[in-house]
Here is the input.
Amino acid sequence: MTRLPIVVLISGGGSNLQAIIDAVVNEGLPVDIRAVISNNPAAYGLERARRAGIPALTVDHRAYPDRGSFETALEAAIDAHQPALVVLAGFMRILGAGFVAHYLGRMLNIHPSLLPAFTGLDTHRRAIEASEKEHGASVHFVTSELDGGPVIIQSRVPVLPDDDVKRLAAKVLEREHRIYPLAIRWFAEGRLTLENDRIMLDGQPLTAPVDYANVEDTAQHAGN
Ligand code: GAR
Here is the structure.
């Protein structure tokens, strides 16, 4: 089986990276993680990559005078590995229009909210403070609008009365670890593309994000 070359960008703990690595090893996710790149040299995710035998490198944004020069260096580091897909997995730098345009249609991000709700940071606290009944995670194609690209798949969790930020974040993260490998699989299998700002899944335009609950139902009915 041909495996899609990917590069994963991280800034921190790398639990989503780990979920992708585990899906390659345990579930035959057909990707070849060519490199993991962090803007933060202390990111624990770099250690996860090394343990899995994946080249782990740092492009430290603090070493560059401005965003443009950082992004030029980052782009060179990514493109040296010739990925067909760039996966942002907890990469916490805002990306400029030129960088985003370079990877348009081949860069995914995961965000801890039900987009378009709660773009940006601190999503769990904001969901609790807004008395939301539901919260969750979204995987989307990256466009120049921050956390604003077309959404591929979402997973919802209830916000319970005794949920605090930590508990809610843990529930959402557990869902992130399911939907990100799934979306990457669809892309790697050629089922998922971005065409003129529109998501195509299995040859059909996606009119609303896939709800992971429905995918789970389908899998159960298929006896998987
Ligand atoms: C995840 O919750 C991810 O959705 C979030 O950072 C966390 C990284 O965790 N990303 C963003 O907020 C991007 N806007 P991880 O390093 O353990 O995968």
In short: The helical segments are 15-27, 44-51, 67-79, 97-102, 123-129, 165-188, 212-221.
